[in-house]
Amino acid sequence: MEKILYVTIDESHMNSSEAGFFQAFVSTCLQEGFFIAKKTDVEEEKRHGLFCVAVCDTQEDIDFFAAQNIPVVAYEREISVRLNNPYIILSFEGVDGDYLTKVHHRFFGLPLTIMETKRTIIREFCMEDLDALFRLYEGEHITDYMEPLYEYEDEKAYEEKYIKNVYGLYDYGMWLIIDKDTKEIIGRAGVESRGGLSGINRETFLDDRNDENTVELGYLIREDYQNKGYATEVCKAIVDYAFNELAKKRVYAQVDEGNLISRKLLKKLGFLDKGAELFEISN
After folding, report:
1. Structure confidence at residue 82 (pLDDT)
2. Average pLDDT of span 105-130
3. 235, 189 Cβ separation under 8 angstroms
4. What is the reported pTM?
């Protein structure tokens, strides 16, 4: 897919360091296949189906692109400048095509691909996946140790809010596991931030689920894919992602005493049994 980046940045207001970051950003985008365009290049009939994002430093330009249904990254180049836009950056340092993709996908409600493992693709849920999600949960024993889905319309409303409020706020959550070969949904896994938890053995487990450095691991694998190493493959990748990409310091999982398979899996991944049905691994 052709990708267009509309740039309306006044470089004359940048210091030499920030100008260097900006030029590095533009160079990276060119290497990643973006076509750099100007505000005057916007033609609605010629960008149908294209990947388009704008980078602006004035409210006038932000409003112009928003009216054209083009997602915007706003650059606040001065402390005195306050821009109204969902995505605002204060520097171009570290900004790249992945960030632009996130802005684009969030704007249009598209699922982000989080990572790939040897046999799977791990990506966000989108509403087109709802029927497949229900089929996944119809599998035998899937809900033996977890809550089932809500009734269809209630689950639909829940997932719509989840996409907006969880993915949109945290940039992580429960994701779908896709078989690379068949393209089928074979499971669900991810990490979430939680609120307080009661009934914890505080002598052996420091419970602070509001700690921004702590996330909870959750996972399920379709029965016909179990005992084939998929859970280990996926969960290891997600734990590594939590530590290395999300910069979390602790991952925990709550596992029923009777769920021997999951308890064995967590120990294999290096989690420590902390009692009270909780397992923990720290970075």
Report:
1. 87
2. 96
3. yes
4. 0.84
